[in-house]
Amino acid sequence: MRKLTRSFYNQNTTLVAQQLLGKLLIHEVNGIRRIGRIVETEAYVGPHDLAAHSSRGITSRTQIMYGSPGYAYVYLIYGIYHCFNVVTEPEGHGSAVLIRALEPVLNIDQRTQGPGLLCRAMGIDKQLNGHDLLGSTFYLAESEKESTFDIVSSKRIGVAYAKEWAESLLRFYIKDNPYVSKR
């Protein structure tokens, strides 16, 4: 498997969100590699996007989004679920892609349809916030066997508060994949 490069992440966020579909998420936990195929993403395109955490400016929580591309942005929602994002675009931009769902490939025996469930199944928590995704135990990679699929775009989930940005078609998923979240 070939790791994704820093230049892959240093592109337009919407493009990265689409190009991540079909890629592999790998996390080695206690010597066991867990691998899932990314089947659903959401783009958060910068501080002007009212659904993005970066729209509130640089805070201790969001500073990673303003950092270099190719780092993990992991946060807790509802006090119980972690969400994993990939920082995109040049430093200072404040954008990221949320990984919403995975198709299990290796050593995953829990549900992965939804960002909180996939983080639980993959062993992703806030300790990985700020982790360089070019590292050796937590990274994204090209799939060894390329497959063709159709990409569907729709509104993002759970961002009704974001005014006109709530209607933006920035959620992407692999058509007819059974591991895409149901919402």
Structure notes:
The protein is built from three helices and eight strands; from the N terminus they run ααβββββαβββ. It is mainly beta. It has one domain (6-174): Methylpurine-DNA glycosylase (MPG) (3-methyladenine DNA Glycosylase, Chain A, Roll), CATH 3.10.300. A hairpin with a 2-residue loop joins strand 1 (24-29) and strand 2.
Architecture (CATH level 2) name: Roll
Helical stretch count? 3
- What is the β-strand count? 8
Low-confidence stretches: none
Q: Name the CATH class.
A: Alpha Beta
How confident is the prediction overall: mean pLDDT?
Answer: 95
Shape type: globular
Terminus-to-terminus distance = 31 Å
Tell me the β content. 25-35%
The radius of gyration over CA amounts to 15 Å
Annotate the secondary structure layout.
Layout lengths: L5 H4 L3 H7 L4 E6 L2 E13 L27 E6 L3 E8 L6 E12 L8 H8 L15 E4 L9 E4 L16 E4 L9
Antiparallel strand pairs: 1-2, 1-6, 2-5, 2-8, 3-4, 4-5, 7-8
Which features characterize this protein?
single chain; 183 residues; mainly beta; 3-methyladenine DNA Glycosylase, Chain A; 8-stranded antiparallel sheet; 3 helices; 8 strands; 10% helix
Question: Nutshell version of this structure?
Answer:
With 183 residues, this protein is mainly β. It has a single domain (6-174), classed as Roll (3-methyladenine DNA Glycosylase, Chain A).
